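User: Hi! I'm working on a homework problem where we have to compare a predicted structure to a textbook description. Could you give me the structure for the chain below?
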Amino acid sequence: PLKLPVEPVLRLIALGISLVIAAATGAGMMAEWPTLALFWYAPAAAGSVVDPIFGKALNFFLFALPAWQLIAGWLLTLAVITCALAVFFILITGGTRALSGHLSRSVLPWRGFSTTFAFLLLVLALRVYISRFELLLDEHTIFGGVTYTDAHVTLTGLLVVCAALVLGAAIAIVNAVRVSRGRWLVAAILPAVICYLALQGVAWYVSSFIVKPNELVREKPYIVYNTNMTRQAYGLTGVTQREFPAETTVDATDPANNQPTLQNIRLWDWRALQDTLRQIQEIRTYYDFPDIDIDRYEIDGTTREVMLAARELNVDKLPESSRNWINDKLIYTHGYGITMNPVNGFTPEGLPTLLLSNMPVQSTVRGLTVTRPEIYFGEMTNTDVYVKTRQKEFNYPQGASNNLTSYEGSGGIVLGGFMRRIVIALDRDDLAKLPFSDDVTQESRLLMRRNLHDRVSALAPFLTYDPDPYVVLGDDGRLSWIMDAFTVSDSYPYSTHYHLDRDLINYMRNSVKVVIDAYDGTTTFYVFDTDDPIIAAYRRIFPSLFKDASTMPPGLRKHVRYPELLLKLQAEVYGLYHMTDPEAFYNREDLWTVATEVGMGEGGAQTTQAMQPNFVLMKLPGEAGIEFVEILPFTPANRNNLIGWIAGRSDGTKYGTSVVYNFPKTKLVDGPLQIEARIDQNAQLSGQLTLWNQQGSHVRRGALLVIPTGRALLYAEPIYLQAERSPMPELRLVVLALQDKLAYGPTFESAMAALFGGGVSSLTAAPA
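Assistant: Happy to help. Predicted structure tokens:
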């Protein structure tokens, strides 16, 4: 008879497949370590937040449910694979017996398949049970979470399906220990299939004939659950609502009592300022200003709103003849200094009035000094460098020669001896140069991960970061970067999901502020929201990584601000979820959207886009002193008139809170697009702008600012003129407007005089 060595081959195949499956599933589970770690280190449930359907604490949904979903998915993958392998072995065994002529006298070995099938049914039962809790995370047309049909039919029906799957698993086990037959496996799955089909039929009937004809009445309590939980998830429950009269007269602006607000109106558009600084402050082509930041500083005893820009080194701009290993790694290692200017400070030539400028850094304000201007860590520092070498580092250009320096910080990794240097060179892909350089000594250091985003992501990849860090000048004269970091989740019960970049989330907290020293790279994570359960869990996992907010140096603490990324998402959510009345929510009677403005697209073409949050140093209506706030106006859906505005507060005990001012619904308040149209329709303005555009130059319009002042709204827009052969825009006009008055002038002071002092608007400066 013919004999084939099937069993040894099958054993080898089974071993190989097992190793591959183990490696693949293990790698997949390793990538999900934060989910498992949060489950293991979850803090004790705190607070009174429980879901309204199951009555489970918030910790179950944030920590336990994601872990169970992950484990159930892993088990389901293994169950499907083992079932497939069992079928494979049945086919192999059946083929072998057919070749030997024994197939007709034997029953195929269903025992192994019955066992794996029972395991699959049990895993499916677990998955169905977990899916009951996932109903609180579902999205529907009108609201998210459990619906009337889910609460009265689906939740109970899924338990019945779960029990049917367990019964089927028991039948499959019996089939495995008795004389195995394939028909018993069909009987095992049949109860679950029947229950599932019955559940779908009943749910369809209830939804179609009980809920739909009376949808608002039936769904009303579940809409309330969704609105309450969504507001909690995005931190909107503490939003203070106030009425804002939005009056239209000049007197309503109350200029006498709002001078701090008026004197800090930002007239420098950040894009125009960036282009200007690149012309007058880059000094050398290899420097760049990647971003413009807005902050508040004490200037001559008065808090002023200013704009800062870090002068970073861009090695890609070095001349091609200078691009070599020594220059890239040892000499051109860092940027140098910052610029600072008031948000509305202009020279007679339309250039910024600089408080900090040049190299070495020069200050025009007493007490405002930069003691450590070198920037080794920043937004453009994307390369590794070696410091404390025998080669002096380029610091800044100085006349015919260059000012040189050597790194004096403690940042980086000590290179040490030859073997240690070999290991570091292998890791950094620098094996051809580093080990053999005479300039590198045992005391030399490697500065790596110098880009801010790379640095924080390597230390805490489980946090979500604001894409826009901002530079801060401390009281000690050192430069630091501050980044806002967030904890997010997609499993907050009954909360609606929104997009955050490419992710869908339904919970967000600005729990952490990250401070990165620009000189030595020291990175510190300060916890600002101790009520956030997710950051509490991470503090238990990494107890030495996080510090209390109270330990942040006061010179940095006074520069923290309400995060831009958080305010934009909160504004999007608030546009719908400010409606807490179920009937208004159901009918979308008062839907808001973020106001739109005219922006500059590619090639200078005008485009319509959503407004970005604007940082303002102002006195909020109803408040006593000035404070640094971030504001964003709202319009009714598909309308251009304003309906309200939200302000995120940044100073003192009010930090992290927000307030919404509602406009009267019986009054039409002009929005940004309507003010832009009024500017375009002004005969004198439009004629001058058209003329400028035809004289070898083009007009650049800055962002239109909407600033609450007193009991009215003040609109401000700077207009720049830029020669075609020069990339440097210069301020030529300032347009100020109220609801029923438009004024302009070549300077901010002249525009203010025309608006508030009864002067005449003019396109040119008054003769001296």
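For your comparison, note the following. Residues 443 and 640 are 63 Å apart (CA to CA). The chain is about 35% helix and 25% strand. Good luck with the assignment!
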